[in-house]
Amino acid sequence: MSDISRLLNIMATLRHPEKGCPWDRQQDFASVAPFTIEEAYEVADAIERNDLPALREELGDLLFQVVFHARMAEERQTFAFDDVVHGICDKMESRHPHVFGEERIATAEQQTVAWEEHKRRERIAKRSDVKNQSPVSVLDNVPLALPALTRAAKLGRRAAGVGFEWPDVQGALDKADEELQELRAAIADKSTLTDIEDELGDVLFCMVNICRYLKVDPEGALRKTNRKFERRFRFVEQRLRAQGREPQQASLAEMDAYWDEAKRLENSGNNS
Prior knowledge:
By secondary structure, the protein is mainly alpha-helical. It is built from twelve helices and no strands.
């Protein structure tokens, strides 16, 4: 028995209506979805930590999520795991005609353009099969459940694909400055929280656009900054606790000084 067959059999046993696991039996697509998202993030976390043993384990957990969903679909007689595999195989071959066909693409940039064009044609084909639908948009099928930064980046890429973008990053930077000024004005005018939230959203969307121009993943950049903040604040806590104090017993100036010390130590370490 192959390993994948073993995994499929394990999943079928867990879902068995009489002999299976009570927890696994009562799950459905909606209840399992949050675990699927969590496992995907754990894969990304292992990659960012360059922890290959953890990556191997997390990829297994993510694969189990695919098997879980496929098993539930099979029980509904809609599709099975083999259909998932066949579908992705067909899609990859279709979207790589320069590898599996006669097209010729020389660079990664050309492939990105071609990939988006294949996806656009697929969206049109899917929509043409459904009657009484609104006109096809380049923004169709950008999942609402994506993290906001990731979704903003994807919306920006889609719009840029049809020419809705500045010629270079300076345009994005200028737009960010403009939106930041509008945020400052809203705060100064004591605008409603709703208005301030709206202006903040515009600023964040501009930041994501800048990331797109610079080929930086906004989610990855923010995760790195989160780790940096956590690392430096823990240093502040350690310095204070060495004196028998907690952060709430220190002034902002004291904590700021230790924060700057943490930065200096990090920078000296990077230069060594």
